[in-house]
Amino acid sequence: MFEVENLQVSYGQSQVIHDISFKADKNETLAIMGRNGMGKTTLFKSLMGILPSQASKVRVADTEVAALESHKRVASGIAYVPQGRMIFPTLTVQENIETGLQVSKMKSIPDEIFALFPVLHDMRHRKGGNLSGGQQQQLAIARALVTNPKVLLLDEPTEGIQPSIIKDIAKVLNEIRKMREITIIVSEQVLSFTMEIADRIIVIEKGKFIHEDRRENVDAAMIKKFLTV
Ligand SMILES: Nc1ncnc2c1ncn2[C@@H]1O[C@H](COP(=O)(O)OP(=O)(O)OP(=O)(O)O)[C@@H](O)[C@H]1O
Question: Does the structure show a pLDDT above 80 at 229?
Answer without folding.
Answer: no
